[in-house]
Design a protein that fits this description.
four-stranded antiparallel β-sheet; 10 strands; single chain; globular; alpha+beta; paralog of FGE (formylglycine-generating enzyme)
């Protein structure tokens, strides 16, 4: 059983767990791909060839039940929206976590497991979202989000908010909810014109910045940033109800 500090954050019993279970991950093989989108927005150009080493990505966004274990073990306070209806299912993605909190979670998970867990780079995230298919606009193909069966539930339901993870079909790598449900923090600092100077192998973003990169659509902002190449960013301290994250780890 994990040690519980004297001063615990309030964690609903339904979201707690007695032991840490490593997140199920899918291996994304090493390889080249074309990053960006020529008909996309300015920050998605120029399209450029990128090599990414093999890595493993969590098949689910970090859930409330996962974050609850972290909170119990470390005494970390609950994020906003923690017990709000529509966000409180144990299998909902955790939301309203800052980049710093997401990074701290990765460090905690690494300390427990001895494996190098971290946030994905933008290049890794896009490589995973493309699923080995260069031409697709979305992980599921070229059909817009409005054509998807769960569109009204996820992006226009009576109670706006994310759905529990893993409701739809995974992409060809076996990863769920890429480009939908919640925006996902990336490791990189964000720079609008970074693609013009990005290195070919394992780009990891500029050395400094004011905003951290994020990827994928969410229950609030769907079509605009749900394409695999679409980029977005916010200051790393911000906590928004449509922002979550997923973890990756390196593979030898």
């Amino acid at each position: 059983m994990l040690p519980v500090p004297d001063q615990q954050s309030a964690v609903p019993r339904s979201q707690a767990s007695e032991k840490i279970i490593e997140p199920p991950c899918a291996v994304v093989p090493a390889g080249d791909f074309l990053m960006g989108c020529e008909p996309g927005r300015d920050e998605e150009r120029p399209v450029h060839g990128v090599w990414v080493d093999a890595f493993a990505m969590a098949i689910y966004q970090v859930r409330n039940r996962d974050f609850a274990v972290f909170m119990q073990a470390t005494g970390h306070p609950a994020p906003p929206n923690w017990e709000q209806a529509g966000f409180d299912d144990p299998d909902h993605p955790v939301v309203s976590v800052s980049w710093f909190e997401a990074h701290k979670y990765c460090q905690w998970l690494e300390g427990l497991t001895g494996r190098h867990y971290r946030l994905p780079t933008e290049a890794e995230w896009e490589r995973a979202a493309r699923g080995g298919d260069e031409g697709r606009l979305y992980p599921w193909g070229d059909d817009p989000p409005t054509a998807r069966a769960e569109y009204q539930q996820r992006w226009g339901g009576e109670v706006p908010g994310p759905l529990p993870v893993g409701r739809g079909a995974p992409n060809s790598y076996g990863i769920y909810d890429l480009c939908e449900n919640v925006h996902e923090w990336c490791a990189d600092w964000y720079k609008t014109d970074y693609y013009a100077q990005s290195p070919r192998r394992n780009p990891s973003g500029p050395a400094t910045g004011e905003r951290r990169a994020s990827r994928g659509g969410s229950w609030r902002h769907h079509v605009r940033v749900s394409r695999v190449a679409a980029r977005s960013s916010i200051p790393p301290a911000f906590q928004y109800a449509d922002y979550g994250f997923r973890v990756v780890r390196g593979e030898q």
